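Appendix B, record 7
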Amino acid sequence: MADLHELVSRYVAVWNEPDPVSRRQQIAALWADDGSHFTPNQDYHGYTALETRITGAYDKWVRDGGHVFRPRDPVDGHHDTVRFQWEMVRDNTVVSVGFDFLLLGEDGRIRADYQFLDQPPTA
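Structure tokens (predicted):
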């Protein structure tokens, strides 16, 4: 399994990526062709849906909201799984905390991404 901290850093970076072309390339590098992202209320399957999901979050929270996503320690994983927390910050104030559980394919790309909100956004 690839370096987990490096994987999580790349994962969080894609949610902060302002360039649509770079974002699309990062999604393809991180997720398997048929990869999925699950939130409590929505399912996203494949690159087009993942790009829609990540672009929507970027537009709302980063571009328009002035927030930044960043990973939190610890990062942990075994048997092609990874778990980690992330936080959404504005003006050095944490406004949301989430938890993701990733299932990786043999190539190290994300097959399934389950996202949970430990602290929903306050704004």
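Remarks on this record: The beta strands are 31-38, 43-45, 68-78, 81-90, 93-104, 110-119. Helices lie at 4-16, 20-30, 46-63.
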